[in-house]
Amino acid sequence: MNAPPSKSYTIRGLTGAALADGISEVVNPLGSDDTEAAARVLTGVGVGIESEQCAWRVSGGTFREPAADLFCGDSAATLRFMTALCTLVPGTCRLTAGASLAGRPVKPLVEALRKLGVNCTSNGGFAPVTVAGGTLRGGATDLPGNVSSQFVSALLFIAPRAEQGISIRLTSPLESKAYVMMTVECLGRFGIQVSVSPDTIDVSRQTYQPARYAVEGDWSSASYLLALGAACGELEIRNLNRHSMQGDRVLLDYLKEMGAEVEVVNSAVRVSQSRLRAIRADLSECIDLLPTMAVLAAVADGVSEFVGIERARIKESDRVAAVAAGLSRMGIATVVEKSRLTVTGGAPRGAVIDSRGDHRIAMAFSVLGAVAGETVIEGAECVTKTFPGFWDILVSIGGRLERDR
User: I want to staple 165 with a disulfide (CB 3.0 to 4.6 A). Which of 86, 101, 204, 310 is the partner?
Assistant: First the structure.
């Protein structure tokens, strides 16, 4: 089966296309709650987006003041990227968020934009965010590197349109650097050059060029299917770029270290079930893998240790707490510390799991449910955020699934 298209690259491709003067194509885009939120906001500020077979045709370059609030759903990338993009929109934009996203921080981005001359306010550091367009002068600003890489990416997208360009000084080490490099790669596809050094990122004033932007497969979404192969039986997932910038590609290395049988041929990855062993992994550069790695650790021999997990607490849920609670319900021992989670492998039992409305919790615990037996995932519909077809795929590969209507 094919991995679904990348959510992160789809939203980046849409943003780059919106900033290019002319017609661009985003080929093989992901259709999901998050990507549709990005398209909806862009349409609200005057970007033309037409859905064609396996592509979105985007007419970008100019913006208009929105007639209503811009609802970002629960897509953090949409809220943060579009907050920055709205500095280029005439008039005033007000960006709102769904219940989950409303609790995720935007304060560092708002403060960085203010230093660039933008009239921008938030609700105590959270959505709603109000942006007065036409106030971006550019210049120098700073950002913490250990809260969200999306803040950095947001500024990179608007930097070429600022009169003075933008120079970003990082006040703490950059975590999830891979996501920033994905943005740099995307910008390059639209003709934009970026200078990156360990603590500074510089972008001069430049002109976006229209492009045909092809979206690759998503390693984050594929992680649940690959984990199923390692825990339950053989699976082959296609449409994966083994040289991808996506940080979650490191899952291949983790699976091999845990003793899974992994074979990579071109864009296909085959993972076969084997006896897994414990692992110690620093997840600071691939924090979305925490739920996947934790459920694999639950069926591995020994005690696994995961560090660099602090940012997992400010995702769609507190994923550290959600993972620990779910594993405990399934009879798996964990120890939670500020920046460390340990998981003692064992024989998980079926249980009722509260997904907390978090797509990654729901999908990860479905993997463990396939091992343990009858397991109920509450709030299972939340997978539409990034992987709408997940439950159908689970059935297609032999999973026994009953859906409450």
Answer: 204
Residues 391 and 247 in one domain: yes
In a domain, 284, yes or no: yes
Select from 172, 205, 238 the last residue of a domain: 205
Which pTM was predicted?
0.94
- The reply to whether 269 falls in a domain is yes
User: How do beta strands 92-96 and 235-237 pair?
Assistant: unpaired
Specify the CATH number for the domain of residue 109: 3.65.10.10
pLDDT tens-place string over residues 80-118: 999 999 999 999 999 999 999 999 999 999 999 999 999
Domain containing residue 29: 7-205
Q: Compute the Cα dihedral for 36, 40, 43, 47 and give only its sign.
A: negative
pLDDT in tens, 304-327: 999 999 999 999 999 999 999 999
Tell me: the pLDDT tens digits for 26-44? 999 999 999 999 999 999 9
Q: Is 301 a catalytic residue?
A: no
Specify the DSSP element, H or E, that contains 143. strand 139-143
Report the pLDDT value the prediction gives residue 233, as an integer from 0 to 100. 87
Q: Which helix (H) or strand (E) holds 17?
A: helix 7-19
Give the active site residue among 218, 248, 288, 358: 288
